[in-house]
Design goal:
Helix content is 72%, strand content 0%. It is mostly helical. Helix 4 runs parallel beside helix 7, helix 4 crosses helix 8 and helix 8 runs parallel beside helix 14. It is globular, with a radius of gyration of 23 Å. It comes from Paenibacillus solisilvae.
Length: 278
């Protein structure tokens, strides 16, 4: 009797969650199916999902005519470099702050945390001046440095919480074996932080892959260096909009993000849970 009593509410909860999931993913499914329609069908079909005939030419137009083949690899280069730089900086910072007590530690954390409340657009002028002074304007390296700059408070705090929860005996054993700061960090502590590394990599990959402001500002004079986010402008004309090409381009942009998340999702969940627990 007890089992029957709980089966109804649990089934109802599952149905509600399934319905909520369908509503949540419907826009993404609609975008994928819209990328396979003709322009006339796209305009007249409303919320209908299935196209009458699959139009794979939309993807060919987005990849070749709209130069997404170039923008795609520009985005890959920028995103991978930014993720690597941020992982290195945030992991080292989180390790130093989480495992050591030093003068000015609280002031440093407070200053870094304060950058969370500063909109990214407010710093575009000093960032542009700095990158331009380095002679990296209108280059992928300028975009990389601009995207990798900033406090990245969330990732630093995730590493701080994770490293703080690791046993101190690990470092003591490394010191006995003659291991220094960087060797201990690189060979012992960092490999244990795979969940936080995956969490940082997924989130920063997503943000950088979809970035618009920085790539736009630092590639104004060189359209061939645009990333996918900026390249979406190719589908907007003076009086018209290529909606099906736009949907195909958006679908192309979405695939790498889904692939990275599916590859690292287990570590992503462990990283968030471990950091919160820490």
């Amino acid at each position: 009797m007890q089992r029957k009593r709980w089966r109804g509410p649990r089934l109802l909860l599952h149905l509600i969650l399934i319905a909520a999931g369908i509503v949540w993913i419907y826009p993404f499914i609609w975008m994928l199916t819209a990328s396979l329609k003709t322009t006339n069908e796209y305009i007249s079909s409303g919320i209908t999902l299935l196209p009458k005939k699959l139009q794979f030419g939309n993807y060919e137009r987005a990849w070749e005519t709209a130069h997404f083949s170039v923008y795609f690899w520009n985005t890959v280069i920028v995103t991978v470099c930014v993720v690597v730089l941020i992982l290195a900086v945030c992991a080292l910072t989180g390790y130093a702050v989480g495992r050591f007590r030093f003068r000015g530690r609280i002031a440093f954390i407070s200053a870094v945390t304060a950058t969370m409340f500063m909109p990214k657009g407010y710093t575009i002028i000093p960032v542009y001046s700095l990158v331009n002074a380095l002679g990296l304007n209108n280059s992928l390296w300028g975009v990389i440095l601009a995207e990798a700059g900033g406090g990245h408070v969330l990732f630093i705090l995730l590493f701080v919480a994770y490293f703080r929860g690791l046993p101190k005996e690990l470092e003591e054993s490394a010191e006995i074996d003659g291991s220094g700061f960087f060797r201990t960090f690189a060979t012992i502590m960092l490999p244990l932080a795979k969940p936080v590394i995956a969490t940082t990599a997924i989130m920063q990959f997503m943000w950088t892959w979809n970035a618009f402001l920085m790539p736009l500002v630092f590639t104004l004079s060189k359209p061939e260096l645009r990333t996918l986010g900026v390249g979406m402008f190719q589908f907007a004309g003076e009086n018209t909009m290529d909606w099906t090409g736009f949907a195909a381009a958006a679908s192309i942009s979405l695939i790498p993000i889904l692939a990275v998340y599916m590859l690292l999702q287990r570590y992503f969940i462990e990283g968030v849970a471990g950091a919160v627990k820490g």
